[in-house]
Amino acid sequence: MADYDPLFYEKLFSFIKYLDSFSLRNITEIVTYLLVALLIYHGYKKYGKKKIALFFLGGFLLTGLEENFMVIQGYFYLFGGPTYYYDYHSYLFWIGAIPIVVLCAWFVLTYSSFQIAEIVVSKDSSKALLKKLLLAGWMGTSIDFVIDPIIIRRYGWIWLNVKEHAVWFLQVPVTNFIGFFLLVVSFNYYFIWYWEKYTRRHDAWSSIKTNGIYFILVLLPLLFVIGIIIICSILLTPLKGIDFSWWPWLN
Amino acid sequence: MKKLNTYWKYLPFVGYLGFFLMQIIIGLLLISGSLPPVTLGLTDPPLYQDLTYIDLLVLLSMNIPTFLIVAIAFKKIRNKKL
Questions:
Q1: Largest alpha-carbon pair distance within chain A?
Q2: Which element (helix H / strand E) includes A102?
Q3: Roughly how many angstroms between the first and final C-alpha of chain B, as a whole number?
Q4: Residue A4 lies in a domain
Q5: Which of A94, A129, A182, B27 is the most exposed place for a label (fewest CB within 10 A)?
Q6: Which of B2, B38, B74, B81 would best serve as a mutation to test chain A binding (most A beta carbons within 10 A)?
Q7: How many domains does chain A have?
Q8: Helical packing angle, B64-78 and A128-152, nearest 10°
Q9: Which residue in chain A is spatially nearest to B66 when comparing CA positions?
Q10: C-alpha angle with apex A104: A115 to B60, nearest 5 degrees?
């Protein structure tokens, strides 16, 4: 059965793990970094440097904490056993157990999805914000339907859950897709809420206070997503062990 | 840089579709057998059924609603002056 890297814990805090050889995956990493740079430039032109910096860094912190939590709690068997991990040999730069490119890819999908949703949904329509959030969430998740079946076959990340402990879709736990959707929706909502409520209205606050509270409260969407995932996992118990996929389960 | 300044409103499409395209290219290379096997450092990796072109087509067809949304957005932004 698949297991964590033998040096998983020893190398957990290394920024660079193994650098065996330069592979195609490293080229895709560099392309992703370039896409991040282009989107940050877009955000700078549209919103200014402060807003795009807060969006990028807030998302970076949120996904960094969430992904590290999911991987490390699985390693220590905190909530029912192993979850997944990223192959230490495959990526260039790391934060804990997560490759930096994964956090950047999340930014690319979250930011570009919301920007496209913003163009499609008219400002005058009722519940415009809700429609934009749901549309962005769907767009981000629908790409995930394609990415996961391809990347797991390249062992970019390895699911370690026992088949009977999860409900599967395309050989990926369903909670992965639910979590991705919720992360996109909740972070976009949190960002808009915070920007409108605090950053604009509290002129008397110093930027350290405004930004500090922003980075602390980013834990709210994180707790929301983890809470919903736990509830979903409990509700889906009768279906555990089922794989909604046309591929046979080989081991 | 001048082009980037003129066409910056299209950058979300570049980001979204660029990332998408990258995954499709990896999928095509994987199916065609052009990628070397990845086994380095993996302890007993899980086995998966090989991906086929039909599989990729089915996965892409799941994204038809998304492609439509992107097409509508592109049409709207093209006519919008920023």
A1: 61
A2: helix A100-120
A3: 18
A4: no
A5: A129
A6: B38
A7: 1
A8: 130
A9: A139
A10: 65
Residue-range definition of the domain harbouring residue A32: 24-244
Q: In this model, does residue A24 exceed pLDDT 90?
A: no
Distance CA A249, CA B23 (A): 23
Please name the residue of chain A whose CA is at the shortest distance from the CA of residue B42: A5
Paired tokens of A81 = 């056993």
Residue that the structure tokens 């922003």 belong to? A214
In the predicted model, what is the mean pLDDT of residues A108-130?
91
- Probe site for chain B from A52, A151, A153, A180 (most B CB atoms < 10 A): A153
pLDDT tens-digit series, residues A173-202: 999 999 999 999 999 999 999 988 776 666
Kindly report the backbone phi and psi dihedral angles of residue A3, in degrees, each rounded to the nearest multiple of 5, phi listed first.
-145, 170
Torsion of CA A197, A200, A202, A207, to 10 degrees: 110
Enumerate residues 87 to 116 of chain A having a beta carbon within 8 A of any beta carbon in chain B: 87-90, 105, 108-109, 111-113, 115-116
pLDDT, position B35: 86
Contact A120/B76, CB-based, under 8 Å? yes
Query: What pLDDT is stored for residue B82 in this prediction?
Result: 59
Whether residue A20 contacts residue A177, with contact meaning beta carbons closer than 8 Å, is answered with no
CB-side neighbour CA atoms (13 Å) of A36 = 20
Q: Do B48 and A105 touch (CB under 8 A)?
A: no
User: Given an 8 Å threshold on Cβ–Cβ distance, is B41 in contact with A139?
Assistant: no
Alpha carbons B57 and A168: distance in angstroms, whole number: 20
- Per DSSP, A187 falls in state H
| Structural domain includes residue A103 | yes
| Contact yes or no for A151/A78 (Cβ under 8 A) | no
For B26, the closest of A4, A116, A150 (CB atoms) is: A150
Say whether residue A4 is in contact with chain B using an 8 A CB cutoff: yes
Question: Per the domain annotation, does A210 fall within a domain?
Answer: yes
- Residues A102 and A66: their CA atoms lie apart, in Å, by 12
Rounded Cα gap, residues A197 and A222, in angstroms: 19
In a domain, A51, yes or no: yes
